[in-house]
Amino acid sequence: MAYTAHRPHPNPPAEELRARIPGWGVDLDPADRPSTPMMRFDPEASGAHWELPDRQPEERPREHSIEHAGVTPVFGTAQPLHGVSGAIRRYSYERFSEARAAHWLLLIAADRVEFAESRLTALLQGHPDNPISETGIRAELKYGGIRSRTGRNARRVDTAHTWIDPFLVAAPWLGGAALALGANAVVRRSARRLRRR
């Protein structure tokens, strides 16, 4: 049956539903609802002794939506903002409402920048990523990854995007290598020009 603007038939009366469906309407009477005491403000019953709970001390400023006057009484401090990604996030929260696409696009950009920051930090600390083991290439070769994607036994759900996986995995590494080679070439040219002078 197609959806129509008007209701095709009225709802059956409550008595008929109660007779036909066991337990129907059991919470219609507020006296029978277990949640009803919580729906009333009764400080004596709940033990609440405040209008607003005590605020957690804010040792460093936390970001919050411009729609709100401040952060909630309790908030997380495990991942403080840092670096360029933190500056992007701070700007997003200070400048744009959560209803604006710019707010969310800046937060997505900050995630990408933080990824690059973490890779660069790992490289500078002497613990660079290992693309062979971390991308699963070794496991694919060791446990029959190609065989599981082809032939009669190919039941893997990732076969539809298998063709693009090497590009997605290799592109950041190739881009980083190209950037490093380009920077190296620029430094060498600059050094040659300085020597000629």
From TrEMBL:
Residues 51-61 have a biased composition (Basic and acidic residues). Keywords: Membrane, Transmembrane, Transmembrane helix. Residues 1-61 are annotated as: Disordered. The chain crosses the membrane at residues 167-187. The keyword Transmembrane applies. This is Uncharacterized protein. It comes from Auraticoccus cholistanensis.
